[in-house]
Each structure stands twice: as C-alpha cells, then as structure tokens.
Amino acid sequence: MASRIKLFIPLIIFVILAGIFLVVLKDEDYDPQSLPSALIDKPVPEFSLPQVGSDTVLTRADIIGKPMLLNIWATWCISCRVEHPYLNQLSEQGVFIIGVDYKDDRAKAQDWLGRLGNPYSVNLFDKQGSFGLDLGVYGAPETYLIDSQGVIRYKHVGVVDDVVWKGTLKPMYDKLVADAAN
Questions:
Q1: Which residues contact 102 (CB under 8 A, 6 or more apart)?
Q2: CATH number, domain with residue 128
Q3: pLDDT averaged over every residue in the chain
Q4: Assigned domain for 7 exists
Q5: pTM of model > 0.90
C-alpha cells in the first residue's frame, strides 16, 4: 500500500506547483518583466569612471543636477542595438540621457557611437562593471530614472521604446522636470 502512495507523490507535487503558478498569474500586480531595485528612492551610488571618449574621470557629483535617464548599454547587447535609435530620438527631443557603457570594449563603443549616433550627454565607461554592480544591474539594457538630486526613482529592465516611454517613463520624467523647475 505504501509503495502505491509513493507513485502519486510526483502528481501531488505537480498539482501543488500548478496551483501556485495559477495564483501568481491571477495576481494583477504581477509583472514578469519587473526586476525591482533595492535602490529606488536612494541616491545613485558613488563612482569614479572615465568617459567613453576620453580619459576624463567623472564622479556622481559631476552628473547630478537635473532629471535624467541613466541608460546601461553595451556593444555586445543585441537589445541595446534595437533601443539605440529610440534613445537618439529622445535625446533630440531634449531628454537628458547619461550612458553607462557596461563591461565593454572602449574602441568598439566609440565606433558604435560614431556609426549609430550618440544620444548621451555624458557616457561613462564601466569596463569592469563595478558601477553596474553597485546599481544592481542584471544586464543590458537597463534604464534608471533619476531626479535632479541624484535619487533613483524608477528602474526599467529591457528596451526603451515608444510604448515604454509614453506609457511609463515620460509621465514620471515630465513630473521630475516640473518638480526641478519649481
């Protein structure tokens, strides 16, 4: 009898896991794209990094002062290539974007920006990924919305496109710009 019950253990485990899966799917707040950041409402971590196009080293104090998108990108990132033309459009519309070239080759990054355009007002070179690690980066692309005081207000994982910009980031960015003007 006990050996017959053992035959049903995999089925029981499957039913339990399926039930948990269904409960999660019915949760209206569940977002499979969401990778929350522990840094929301906390300052951008301190850093000291060179720029992609020069050996000039910048720190946190050099980049704060107005609302921005902080975009993590790399030449090895296929999704970054998809996102790049849209970032160029946002930059042309006056959106302040700081780039962080993450775990990349500097020469390839300079070539990329020369060929595809440079949407970044400042572009930091994070060769070792230390700043990315401090930010809690999972990969590229990731985009952080930062207020004028240098506080992280939102993190988006994945490509920034028209849907993400207009539906999520733009309303928050516009509010940060308005708050900074007051």
A1: 72, 73, 74, 126, 129, 132, 137, 140
A2: 3.40.30.10
A3: 91
A4: no
A5: no
